[in-house]
Amino acid sequence: MPLGLAPAALAALSAHGTAVAGISEADFFLPAPDTHARQQLIDAELAKGRLALGEGQLLPALQHYTRALTLAPDSSEALNGVAVCYDRLGRFEVSRTYYEIALGIDPTSPILLNNYGYSLYLQGAQDQARRFLMLAVAVGDAEVQQRALRTLASIDTTPRPAPQLVQTAAPLAEQVPAAQIVRTSAHEVRLVLDQAPAAPDRMQLADGLPAQMAALSDRQAAMIRPVAALDAVDEAHIALADLVDARLIAAEQAQRQMQARRMLRPATPAVPVWMQAVIDLALVAAPQAEPDRAALANLFRPADAPTHARDPLWDAHQMVDFSQSVRPDAARRRHVAALANSISQPEQTDQSVRQEAEAADQPQRRHFDQPFQSDDAKLNDFADRMQHGSVRQVKAAQVARLQALLLRMQQA
Amino acid sequence: MIRSLRSSGRCWLLACLIGWPVWAASAESVEVQGMDAAAPQAQPVSLPDGRTLTLQFIDQAIAEHRLQAAAELLNRAMARPGGAADRELQLRTAELLLASGLLPDAERAFQALLPEADVAARARTGLAISLINRGEAGQARILLQEAVAMAPDLARAWSALAVLADRAHNWSEAEGHYDNALRVAPDDAGIWNNRGYSRLLQQDFAGAEADFQQALQLQPKLTEAQTNLRLARALQGQYLRSFANSRAQNLGQDLNTVGFAAMLRGDHALAESYFYRAMEADPAYQDRAAANLAYLKAVRENNNQSAGMERR
User: Fold this and answer.
1) Are A216 and A228 within 8 A, CB to CB?
2) CB-based contacts of A32: which residues, under 8 Å, 6+ apart?
3) Residue of chain A minimizing CA distance to B95
4) Neighboring chain A residues of B264 at a CB cutoff of 8 Å
5) Fewer CB atoms inside 10 A, N or C side of chain A?
6) Which ipTM was obtained for this model?
């Protein structure tokens, strides 16, 4: 083994970063190497992960997928699930590693190719995203193709920055004949300024800053003003470049807004209302098993409105169920059932959370630094009760303060 | 900026690591199916195998300095059957060690691969870059010349040879090596950045600016090219333009860079102003800007003394 030194260094490098915080093998009971039981456990964890992810519970989903990964380190579905969770948590660097590990194991999985492409698209790596989405289109079934094509269309409609004109100024050899950077060693640079000319005399105070510096605050923008300004030709070039940049940015923002509106537009019913009523009546007349009935009843209804827990953009682009692309009919049934369940069940609100929120909304009792003092004993009594609750508590506190004072005097 | 330029020099050398071999996709070619007319244009799509993909991912992770991800991918790939004996993976291990700065380990790993014909040229290049980083230019030059003789399309070796020529102030030789490197890899932003830096050293500031812009078009987030572009513009006296696309979090560094350029041009009052502003904008630049201010003061005193002696 010529690289006997490498494992230690590699282990040190990979010791951090991608480990999932708070979840370790010690927290999780590993069963005996009974293949059947192990496979059942893996399947159960994957199913729980899918369910949690479908409900938008990212951390539990991550926990289940990580457990599945502990049992089956080469499971591409578990790797994909972990990556999707990290994607949705915004930790693209970690998700990328998991996708890449998974693609090394299963390079032709259309779901992995699509999800990785979408993740790269979200990170702004559009050329790389295009490559993997095209692969997903090439090898995927209709559903994967649809999702990948949607993302590809988004990439194609996103305006790219126009290639910048290379603006070169006149060579400075005449202006700065003797200013030199001299490299004296590997990391040393020395200046030779012996014959450097004096400062140019054509400088004035700049009265405007380019729009490219809009990201800076006024104070920061003031910092970059030179003591003197450029000549009129340079300023005109800069102003022109700024105008082009500003227009490109505005066009890009408008495009993104339009795209977001298009993605979030609610679906319309595929059939007239009266037909939905007929279907409902027919279902009542011929009752079926509960999940199928719910699925059929809601087959033609529009999708539910997006909630904070489930982002429709994620669901529209990413896939986690590896059986979907293999068995589209079964997958469609499950999808419809999940949709029906999410529509028919009202949103649960935790009672304790609601009580806490109501309590937080109550006006707070005011506190006074000085007790209220008046000539009227009744008013004083009332003020004491407002501040301390009761006269007895006030007296007890006063007695305690006196006792403490006496104690300090004795000690002194 | 003196220190910035030093670190930029390091990045310059590190940028040599960016080039990675072009992989021949060992897979079939398929046509995209199921796309309508409005869909993106149908192009042949090659389906790489798992090993090829993994090697590409590792190369990219090393090039982008995502070293933990590269180590994770390497560990996984090595653990698979036959992985430990895979010479391409062993070469990636050496590259990762080099990128991590573990130079003795990297050199041992590269040396072990020198006799292997399929990776010999790349192993020589990696070993040479490690030697350059340790200041052993002579031995590195021999190795690089062997590497380009074995594989003339090894852009990284040409780029490293150009860097060595730059250090020797042999500008014409450096230009030739850069031309060879860019002919092989015209889309490599690191090589464009290196050539721009070479032109900066030759005081061809306009040419340097064009090269840095080209590098940034290819790789907009290449921070070395961003800093160098500011320097090139400021060295032409275009101070305000040097701050294009500057961000609040980097303002201290940019002010320091432009101040350094102003000092080079002899705009001492302006340089002083920029150094003070750099200290104000970013406390992390207190030391660097203060060092530059001290240097500027020494230069000014030296100039005043020279002027006084001439008057006498």
Assistant:
1) no
2) none
3) A6
4) 176, 179, 181, 191, 193, 196
5) C
6) 0.71
